[in-house]
């Protein structure tokens, strides 16, 4: 986030600003063929795009079964040429997903396309371009401070997917990665998104990464259905040796965190 930018610059790091007028671009449709351990890259990308579309659609119900099927079908069609010939085929962008959704016969696909339109041709088309980011520093800050509320949560999800690709690359080169994610609670509000985040965090740890979640909003954190999957692996500041974390009792951890909420802000991080 933006408040870390001065510190990163002071230490000689690199700040990547994600904003409407920024020269830096990240394509959420990028597909890395060498990032999965026993997992299909296409399946992982489909999971990510389902989470992204769920955030875009919004609402209490989230994506409906037919909508999930339509998205999965479009993902498989979009990457068919790329999977057949990654060296020469063009990497899809959001415009391609939008156009394909418009061509589908189901009424649900038209709803999805309409919801996606503002991120493709409308005022929120920050992630419409091909990736243009050069990460040549050991210390990197992805700065989202210039994004409005309507785009920030979506950007946070896209950043997780982007970081996963970078961590996987580092791991292949024998480089360890530390990852700090501020305002993490925002990614646990939607069921599909929360589930995707939990999956990504577990895979990050398999790549030797030390992912850390920072939040001041513990109420929203505890409201997530997926929070037990996270709480089983985390520890709170000052609780590094607390036996609660070894009992794997999510309800006990929940109640303890709630009691702790009244004593100030909480820093929650993934256990190493």
Query: How is the biggest beta sheet arranged?
Result: 2 strands, parallel
**Number of DSSP helical runs:** 12
How many strands appear in the DSSP assignment? 6
Which runs of at least 5 residues are low in confidence (pLDDT < 50)? 234-249, 260-272
Task: Walk me through what this model shows.
This protein has 272 residues and is mainly alpha-helical. The protein has a domain at 177-272. Helices cover 48% and strands 9% of the residues. It is built from twelve helices and six strands. The strands form three sheets. Strands 1-2 form a two-stranded parallel ribbon. A two-stranded parallel ribbon has the order 3-4. Helix 8 links the parallel strand 3 (178-182) and strand 4. Helix 2 crosses helix 3, helix 5 packs antiparallel against helix 6 (107-117) and helix 7 (149-172) packs parallel to helix 8 (191-206). It is globular and about 55 Å long. The model is unreliable at 234-249 and 260-272 (pLDDT under 50).
Labels describing this entry:
two-stranded parallel ribbon, 48% helix, two-stranded parallel sheet, single chain, 272 residues, 12 helices, mainly alpha
């Amino acid at each position: 986030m933006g408040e870390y930018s001065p510190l990163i610059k002071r230490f000689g790091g690199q700040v990547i600003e994600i904003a409407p007028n920024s020269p830096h671009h990240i394509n959420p449709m990028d597909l890395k063929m060498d990032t999965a351990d026993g997992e299909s890259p296409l399946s992982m990308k489909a999971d990510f795009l389902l989470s992204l579309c769920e955030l875009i659609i919004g609402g209490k119900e989230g994506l409906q079964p037919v909508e999930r099927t339509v998205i999965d079908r479009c993902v498989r069609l979009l990457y068919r040429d790329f999977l057949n010939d990654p060296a020469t085929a063009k990497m899809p962008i959001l415009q391609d997903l939008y156009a394909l959704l418009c061509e589908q016969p189901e009424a649900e696909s038209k709803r999805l396309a309409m919801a996606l339109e503002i991120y493709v041709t409308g005022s929120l088309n920050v992630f419409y371009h091909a990736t243009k980011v050069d990460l040549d520093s050991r210390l990197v800050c992805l700065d989202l401070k210039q994004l409005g509320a309507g785009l920030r949560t979506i950007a946070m999800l896209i950043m997780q997917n982007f970081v996963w690709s970078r961590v996987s690359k580092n791991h292949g080169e024998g480089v360890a990665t530390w990852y700090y994610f501020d305002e993490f609670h925002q990614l646990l509000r939607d069921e599909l998104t929360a589930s995707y985040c939990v999956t990504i965090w577990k895979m990050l740890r398999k790549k030797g990464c030390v992912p850390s979640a920072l939040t001041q909003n513990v109420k929203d954190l505890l409201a997530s259905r997926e929070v037990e999957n996270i709480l089983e692996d985390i520890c709170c500041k000052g609780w590094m040796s607390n036996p609660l974390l070894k009992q794997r009792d999510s309800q006990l951890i929940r109640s303890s965190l709630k009691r702790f909420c009244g004593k100030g802000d909480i820093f929650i991080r993934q256990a190493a």
